[in-house]
Task: inverse folding
C-alpha cells in the first residue's frame, strides 16, 4: 500500500518546495479534509502548496519513488469528494499558483496557472472586451484547474458549451512523474488535441495540470433576463422547448422550482416576485451590432412565447442592478437549500433534452413515495437537472434507495449519472454498476498508462 | 387619485466627476439611471394606484435623453411620463428646479399626491421635494418610510427619525419624499416594457408651463457655485495617554502651546 509521510519524507518535501509550502499542523490542514459534498472527511498527511511547475514535477518524482498518494486540489468546491485524500498522503493545493500569465488579445487566449479563480479570468478578460463564458455557480471559489479536471459546465452551457470547449492547451505531470504538454493558443487542432480532451474531466486521476490555455470569446454588450413564473412546474420545460424553437440562441434557460425559490428567498433575504410558482429563467445577450430596440424585440418575442406557454406573467430585467439580483439568487441555490431546508443529497443527472419533463415527473414520484420533498433546478437547455432531496438526518438506507431511484430514472430515460459535477467518490459505486463494463475496463487500462503506481488521486471514479 | 412622481435621471456612479472650469457635473460617458431613491417613489405611487385607482404620472426636468428614464417609469407601471425640457432650464439650482417642477405639476391639474425621492445621488441636497411643496403651498413630509393609510382626502404616514418614527396625519394634496425602507421596487414586466415602447412622452417647454424666465435656469438660480473641491483631510488627532491627572496636564500644556487657553 502507500507509504506514510514520515518526518524524513516531510523534510525531503520541504527541500523541494521550501518549508512554508509544506503544511503539517492539524489546524492548517483540516480545511483540506473536506469539500462541498455532505459528510465526507479525509485528513491528508500533509498539504503542499507548490509555487511552480518545477516543484510539482519534483514532488511527483518523489511521490513515485517513495510511493505515497498525491491528490490535486483547486478550490475544494467539488460536490463528489473528488479532491479528498482517501489514501492519505499529500494534497497538492494550487492556491499559490494562481496567476494569469498572459491575455493574448490578438489570439484571444489566456495562459494561466491552475489555481486562478474562475471568476477572476472573466473579470480580467472583461478589461479587454473579451469573455470567458463558462460559469459554474461556484464561479468565485472554484479554480480553472479544478474546472479543467472536472470539465465543469454551468448555466451558460446551452449557448457556449463547457470547459472542454475552451481548454486549448495544457502542461501537466503524469503518474510516471513525466511532464507532457499538448495544444497551445490554438483554436483548431487536429494534431495533439485528443489527449488533452482525455485528461479534461479525469478528476486528477491521470495528470496534474500546472499550466492551462483557455480560449476567450467576444464579450456581449447587452444582456437581459426574462423571468416567467408558472403555476405548474411541468409546463416549464414545455415553455423552454418553445423558446428553443424560436432560434433566439439564449445563453441560459434555467428552471427553479417553487421549493428552490423558497429556499433562496429565505437564504438571501431578497424579495422574489411570484415565488409561489416555479420559474423559467432565460438569459439573452447580444453583441453591439443590434440596436437596443432590436434587442428588446428579441426579449419581447421570448416573453410572449412564455405567456403563450402558460406563464402567469413575464418580468424583464435589463438594468445591471436587477440582473445582479437575479444572479445572486440563482448562484445561491446550493447553499440556500443546504442552509434552509437541509440537503440530504444533490445529484446532477443529465437526460436528453426532450426527456426533462419525464425526469421531473420521476423525481416527483420518488419524492411522493419516500416522503422527502425535492427541490429541483437546473439547465433545461442541456438536460442537466439538479435534484435535491431535502430534509435532515435521513437514514443511510433511505438515502441509498433514493439515489438509486433517481439514477435509474435518469438511465431509463437515456440519461447519465452526472452532467457536470463528475463521479469522484460519491458516485463511484454507481459508476461501476451502471456504466458499460467494457468502457470501465478501457478506462482502467488508460489509468495504468498514465499512472501505473496509482499515485494520482487514488480511490476515485472506479 | 392623481399621483405625480418626480424622477431625476442621474449618472450611474457614486464618483461623479466635476469639470474644474465650469464647476458642473461631467455627464458624458457615464450611463444614466433613474435616481435610485426615485424608484421607491415610483413603486409607492403604483401601489397606491393599484389600491385606489387613478393615475400615476412620472415627471422629470432634464435634457432630452431623460426621456429614457420616463419610459422606464412607464415600464414599471406609471401611466404616463412628462419631460420638462428647454434650453432655458439649463443650470437650474434646487430653487429653480423646484419652481419648474411645481409649474409642471400645476399644468397636470388636480394632483392629490406628489412623491419624490429622499434625495438625488448626484446633487444630494434633498431640497427639491420640500421646494416643490413650498411653491405649491401644500404640506410636505420628508423621509416617509411607510404610508399606513390613505384615501382621497388624507393619509397617515410614518416619518423616519433617528431611533424611531413620527406618525403624521396629513390632508391631501400633499408632497412626500420617501426613503428606501418604504418598499421594494418591482421588476418591470413584459407588458410594462411594451407599453413603455409605445408610450408618448410629452415634452413641455418653459412656455408650455408658463414659467417666469427670471425664475428658471441659471438666471433663476440664486445658488452660485464658486468652487468645488475635495475638503482637505483632517489631520490625525493626538491622544494623551496615562492617568487622568497626568493626561489632563498634557492636554492643558498642548492647548497652552497652541495659545488656545
Ligand atoms: C455552490 C456550488 C455550485 C456549483 N455549480 C457548479 C456548476 O454550475 N457547474 C459545475 O460543473 N460544477 C459546479 N459545482 C461543482 C464544482 O464547483 C466544480 O466541479 C469545479 O470544477 C471544481 O473546481 P475546484 O477548483 O473547486 O476543484 P476541487 O473541488 O478542488 O477539485 C475537483 C477535482 O479537480 C481535481 N483538480 C483540481 N485541480 C487540479 C489540477 N491542477 N490538476 C489536476 N487535477 C486537479 C481534483 O483532484 C478533483 O478531482 C458547484 C459547486 C458548488 C459548491
Ligand atoms: C455643487 C452643485 C453644482 C451644480 N451645478 C449645476 C449646474 O451647473 N447645472 C445644472 O443643471 N445643475 C447643477 N447642479 C444640479 C442641480 O442643482 C440639482 O441637481 C438639482 O437642482 C436637483 O437637486 P438635487 O440633485 O440635490 O436633488 P434633491 O433635492 O436631492 O432631489 C430630491 C428629489 O427631488 C426630485 N428631483 C430632483 N431633481 C429633479 C429633476 N430634475 N426632475 C424631477 N425630479 C427631480 C427627485 O424626486 C429627487 O429624489 C449642481 C448641483 C450641485 C450640488
Result:
Amino acid at each position: 500500500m502507500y507509504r506514510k509521510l514520515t518526518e524524513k519524507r516531510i523534510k525531503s518535501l520541504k527541500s523541494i518546495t521550501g518549508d512554508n509550502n509544506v503544511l503539517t499542523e492539524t489546524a492548517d490542514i483540516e480545511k483540506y479534509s473536506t469539500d462541498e459534498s455532505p459528510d465526507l472527511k479525509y485528513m491528508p498527511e500533509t498539504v503542499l502548496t507548490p509555487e511552480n511547475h518545477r516543484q510539482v514535477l519534483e514532488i511527483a518524482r518523489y511521490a513515485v519513488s517513495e510511493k505515497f498518494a498525491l491528490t490535486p486540489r483547486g478550490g475544494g468546491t467539488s460536490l463528489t469528494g473528488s479532491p479528498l485524500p482517501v489514501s492519505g498522503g499529500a494534497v497538492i493545493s494550487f492556491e499559490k499558483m494562481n496567476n494569469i500569465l498572459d491575455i493574448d488579445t490578438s489570439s484571444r487566449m489566456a495562459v494561466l496557472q491552475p489555481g486562478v479563480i474562475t471568476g477572476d479570468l472573466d473579470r480580467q478578460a472583461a478589461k479587454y472586451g473579451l469573455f470567458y463564458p463558462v460559469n459554474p455557480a461556484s464561479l468565485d471559489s472554484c479554480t480553472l484547474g479544478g474546472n479543467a479536471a472536472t470539465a465543469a459546465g454551468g448555466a451558460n452551457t446551452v449557448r457556449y458549451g463547457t470547459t472542454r470547449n475552451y481548454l486549448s492547451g495544457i502542461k501537466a505531470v503524469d503518474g510516471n512523474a513525466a511532464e507532457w504538454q499538448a495544444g497551445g493558443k490554438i483554436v483548431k487542432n487536429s494534431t495533439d488535441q485528443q489527449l488533452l480532451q482525455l485528461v479534461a474531466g479525469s478528476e486528477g486521476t491521470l495528470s496534474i495540470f500546472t499550466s492551462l490555455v483557455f480560449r476567450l470569446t467576444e464579450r456581449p454588450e447587452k444582456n437581459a433576463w426574462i423571468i416567467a413564473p408558472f403555476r405548474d412546474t411541468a409546463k416549464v420545460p414545455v415553455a423552454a422547448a418553445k423558446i428553443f424553437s424560436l432560434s433566439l440562441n439564449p445563453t441560459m434557460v434555467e428552471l427553479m422550482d417553487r421549493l428552490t425559490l423558497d429556499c433562496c428567498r429565505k437564504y438571501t433575504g431578497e424579495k422574489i416576485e411570484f415565488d409561489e410558482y416555479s420559474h423559467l429563467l432565460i438569459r439573452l445577450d447580444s453583441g453591439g451590432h443590434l440596436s437596443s430596440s432590436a434587442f428588446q424585440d428579441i426579449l419581447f418575442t421570448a416573453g410572449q412565447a412564455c405567456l403563450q406557454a402558460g406563464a402567469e406573467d413575464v418580468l424583464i430585467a435589463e438594468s445591471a442592478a436587477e440582473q445582479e439580483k437575479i444572479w445572486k439568487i440563482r448562484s445561491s441555490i446550493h447553499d440556500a437549500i443546504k442552509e434552509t431546508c437541509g440537503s440530504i443529497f444533490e445529484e446532477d443527472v443529465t437526460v436528453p433534452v426532450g426527456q426533462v419533463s419525464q425526469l421531473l415527473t420521476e423525481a416527483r414520484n420518488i419524492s411522493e413515495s419516500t416522503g422527502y420533498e425535492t427541490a429541483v433546478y437546473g439547465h433545461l437547455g442541456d438536460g442537466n437537472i439538479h435534484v435535491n432531496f431535502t430534509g435532515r438526518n435521513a437514514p443511510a438506507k433511505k438515502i441509498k434507495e433514493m439515489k438509486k431511484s433517481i439514477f435509474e430514472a435518469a438511465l431509463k430515460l437515456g440519461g447519465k449519472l452526472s452532467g457536470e459535477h463528475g463521479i469522484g467518490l460519491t458516485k463511484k459505486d454507481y459508476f461501476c454498476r451502471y456504466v458499460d463494463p467494457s468502457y470501465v475496463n478501457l478506462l482502467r487500462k488508460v489509468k495504468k498508462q498514465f499512472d501505473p503506481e496509482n499515485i494520482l488521486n487514488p480511490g476515485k471514479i472506479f | 387619485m392623481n399621483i405625480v412622481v418626480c424622477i431625476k435621471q442621474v449618472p450611474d456612479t457614486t464618483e461623479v466627476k466635476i469639470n474644474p472650469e465650469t464647476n458642473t457635473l461631467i455627464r458624458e460617458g457615464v450611463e444614466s439611471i433613474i435616481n435610485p431613491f426615485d424608484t421607491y417613489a415610483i413603486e409607492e405611487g403604483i401601489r397606491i394606484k393599484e389600491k385606489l385607482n387613478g393615475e400615476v404620472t412620472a415627471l422629470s426636468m432634464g435634457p432630452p435623453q431623460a426621456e429614457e428614464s420616463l419610459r422606464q417609469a412607464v415600464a414599471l407601471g406609471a401611466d404616463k411620463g412628462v419631460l420638462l425640457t428647454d434650453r432655458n432650464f439649463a443650470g437650474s439650482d434646487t430653487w429653480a428646479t423646484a419652481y419648474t417642477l411645481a409649474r409642471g405639476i400645476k399644468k397636470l391639474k388636480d394632483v392629490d399626491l406628489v412623491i419624490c425621492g429622499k434625495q438625488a445621488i448626484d446633487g444630494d441636497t434633498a431640497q427639491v421635494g420640500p421646494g416643490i411643496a413650498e411653491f405649491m403651498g401644500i404640506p410636505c413630509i420628508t423621509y416617509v418610510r411607510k404610508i399606513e393609510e390613505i384615501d382621497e382626502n388624507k393619509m397617515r404616514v410614518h416619518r423616519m427619525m433617528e431611533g424611531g418614527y413620527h406618525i403624521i396625519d396629513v390632508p391631501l394634496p400633499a408632497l412626500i419624499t420617501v426613503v428606501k425602507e418604504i418598499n421594494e421596487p418591482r421588476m418591470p414586466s413584459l407588458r410594462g416594457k411594451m407599453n413603455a415602447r409605445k408610450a408618448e412622452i410629452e415634452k413641455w417647454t418653459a412656455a408650455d408651463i408658463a414659467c417666469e424666465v427670471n425664475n428658471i435656469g441659471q438666471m433663476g438660480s440664486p445658488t452660485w457655485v464658486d468652487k468645488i473641491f475635495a475638503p482637505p483631510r483632517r489631520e490625525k488627532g493626538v491622544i494623551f495617554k496615562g492617568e487622568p491627572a497626568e493626561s489632563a496636564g498634557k492636554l492643558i500644556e498642548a492647548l497652552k502651546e497652541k495659545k488656545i487657553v
Summary: The pocket of flavin-adenine dinucleotide (ligand 1) is lined by residues A 35-36, 71-79, 82-83, 94, 114, 136-138, 142-143, 145-147, 149-150, 152-154, 203-204, 208-209, 334, 420-421, 457 (CB under 6 Å). DSSP finds six helices and eleven strands in chain B. Chain B touches chain A through twelve residues (CB under 8 Å).
